[in-house]
Design brief:
single chain, 227 residues, alpha/beta, 6-stranded mixed beta sheet, 3-stranded antiparallel beta sheet, 5 helices, 11 strands, 26% strand, globular, disordered C terminus
C-alpha cells in the first residue's frame, strides 16, 4: 500500500508516482467500505472528473470498483466542475467522488470524497477511510452497474451531469465583497449553468477550505473564471 493520506480536501499525489492504479484501487475500496458500513449498498455513488491527466481513466476504474462491490454508480460522461458534482450529491442524497487536484500543479491528481450533505468530509469520516485502507467489502448481494448520466432539467429535477460537456457551459460569478481570509463554507458567489446559451440553473459557490492569502484568492479567481 502506497503513501495515501486523506484530509478534508481528499487525497492528492503525483500521477505515476503515488497516484497509481494500485493506490486508486486501495483508496476506492476504503471509501466503499466506509459507505457500506455507514449506509449499506442502497447509497448511490456519483463519480466525476476534471480535465487533468488520466482523471477519466482513474475515475472509471473507481466506478468499476464500486460497481463490483454492489453499488449503483452514476458516472459522469463528461468533464464537470466540483460544485456541480457536490450539488448532485445533495440533490440525489448520494455520496460522490471527484477526481481533481484543485489548485495543485498539473502533474497532480486527487480523489475528493463528498458526503451526501455536499460539504467537505469531516475528520471523523476521513479517519474512518484511513482506517479502512487495505480493507474491502467482503460480502454484497450482487454486482452493481455503472450508468452514464444524461442531463435532465425540469422545475423539480436538475441533474447536472452533462452527456456532452461542449453543450454545457458554466459562468462563475464571485461576490464583489469577497476578500481573504475566508473560511471553509463561506459563500464566494455562484455558478450559472447554461445549455445552448440558456441558463438552466444557479448553484451556490462555496469555499471548501480556509484561504488566508489575498494573492492566492486573486489567482484562484482569475484561474476559475477562465474555465
Amino acid at each position: 500500500m502506497g503513501n495515501i493520506k486523506f484530509g478534508t480536501d481528499g487525497w492528492r499525489a503525483v500521477v505515476g508516482k503515488d497516484f497509481t492504479e494500485e493506490n486508486v484501487i486501495t483508496a476506492s475500496n476504503a471509501i466503499a467500505k466506509y459507505v457500506y458500513d455507514n449506509f449499506g449498498l442502497d447509497k448511490t455513488i456519483i463519480i466525476g472528473y476534471d480535465p487533468r491527466n488520466m482523471a477519466d481513466v482513474f475515475s472509471y476504474k473507481c466506478a468499476e470498483i464500486f460497481a463490483d462491490n454492489g453499488f449503483e454508480v452514476l458516472y459522469s460522461s463528461g468533464i464537470i466542475p466540483t460544485p456541480v458534482l457536490a450539488y448532485n450529491a445533495k440533490h440525489l442524497n448520494a455520496c460522490a467522488l471527484m477526481f481533481t487536484a484543485s489548485h495543485n500543479p498539473p502533474e497532480y491528481l486527487g480523489i475528493k470524497f463528498i458526503p451526501d450533505y455536499a460539504g467537505p468530509a469531516t475528520s471523523d469520516i476521513t479517519d474512518e477511510i484511513m482506517y479502512n485502507l487495505g480493507s474491502s467489502i467482503k460480502e454484497h448481494l450482487k454486482k452493481g452497474e455503472i450508468k452514464k448520466i444524461k442531463p435532465k432539467y425540469s422545475s423539480n429535477q436538475k441533474v447536472l451531469l452533462p452527456k456532452n460537456s461542449n453543450k454545457i457551459t458554466y459562468k462563475y460569478k464571485f461576490k464583489n465583497e469577497v476578500q481573504a481570509p475566508i473560511k471553509a463554507g463561506d459563500t464566494l458567489g455562484e455558478v450559472e449553468v447554461y445549455s445552448s446559451n440558456n441558463k438552466i440553473s444557479t448553484i451556490p459557490l462555496k469555499s471548501d477550505k480556509n484561504v488566508k492569502s489575498v494573492s492566492f484568492l486573486y489567482i484562484f479567481k482569475k484561474m476559475i473564471n477562465n474555465i
